[in-house]
Amino acid sequence: MLNLALGCLTSFCLTLWIVKHTSRAGSRWLDTDLTGVQKMHAVPVPRVGGVAIMGGTGITFVVGGVFDGNPLGDALLLFGCAAIPFVAGCVEDVTKRVSPRIRLLAAMAGAICAVYGLNAVLGRVDLPIVDRGLALLPVAIGLTVLTVSGLTNAINLIDGMNGLASVSAILIFGSIGYVAHQVGDWLIMSVALTMIGTILGFAVWNYPGAAIFLGDGGAYFIGFLMAELLVLLIARHPNVSAWYAAVVAIYPLFETIFSIYRRKFVRGRPVSEPDGVHLHTLIYRRIALRGADYRDLRQRSRRNARTSPYLWALCAVGVVPASFFWNQPVVLFATDIVFVGAYVWFYACIVRFKTPRFLLGHSSITPPATSQETRR
Fold first, then answer.
1. pTM of the model
2. What does the record give under GO molecular function (predicted)?
C-alpha cells in the first residue's frame, strides 16, 4: 500500500503546483482550443496533467524500491519505456506540432524497448490457429507492438470528458492489481497500485470540475503502462487467460475499433482525423445537456461531469467479470460479446434519438417556463 499512498500524495502535490503556476507558464500549458469538434470544455485549462502523473510515478518507483515496495530495476526499466510515448505526447500538448504518426511510432518504440528489456512478448492469444503463428518470435513481437500501441492510443481516444479516462483507468488498473495479487506477481501488482495512486491524486483536480487535463502525454503514459502490464501478466502466467486482457480493457479498445470503422468506412475520412461523434460526446450532447442552457458555462461544466458515470458503468461491464473470471476463457469471450452488443445498441439508440427513458434520468426534465414565456 506504500506505492498507492505515496503515488497519490506526490501526484496530488505536483498537480496542485501545475494548477497554481499555470498563469506563469503562459498559454503553452493551456488548451485554448475551444472550438474543435472533440472539445467539450468552455474555458482554457492546462493540458499537462500527465507531467504530475509521470513525476509521481517516478518518485514512487524510486522510494518504493528503496523500501521494498516494488522491484526497483524492473520498475524503472518499465518507466523508461513509458517515457518514450509520454515525451511525444507531452511535446504535442505544448507545441501542437507532433503528428499522430510520430506519436504512434513513439508508442511502438517504447513497446520494442519493453520487448527486449523486460521480455514483454505476447506469445499467445488462446486461439489455437493464431497461437501457432505466434510461435515465431518476429510474429509475436509484431503483435505485441501493435497491441501495446493500440491500447496506448485508445486511452487518449476516451480522454474527452471530466474524469472519464482517469477513473476508467483506475478501474482497469484495480483489476490488473487484483489478478496480479492472485497469481503472486509483485512487479505487476506494485506498478498497478502506483498507477491507481498517481491517477487518483490527479483525478481530484479533474472531476467533477476540471482544473487540469491529462493531455496526450498523460493518456499515452497511462495507456502504455496499462498495455505492458497486461502483456506481462499473460506472458508470465499461463493460467491467466489471454482473453482477460481483451475484456478488462474492452471499453477503450472497442471505442478505438468502432471509431476506426466509423471514420474509415461509414464517413470515408482519415482514421486520424478527430470528430465529435464518439459515444461520450453523444452522451454529453444528447443526454447530459438535455434541458440545459448551452450558453451557461456553469451548466455546461456540471453537465460535462454528468457524462462520465455513464461510461464508467460501461467500462465496469468488462472490468467486473474480467476480475472474477480471469482464468475462464469461455466466460470472458461471452462478456466480450455482451459488451459489444450493449455498446452498439447504446450508440444506435442515441444516434437515432431513441435513448431509453431510464438512461435520461433528471436530464430528461425540461426546466419550467418563466412567467414571461407563459404569457407569450
1. 0.90
2. metal ion binding; phosphotransferase activity, for other substituted phosphate groups
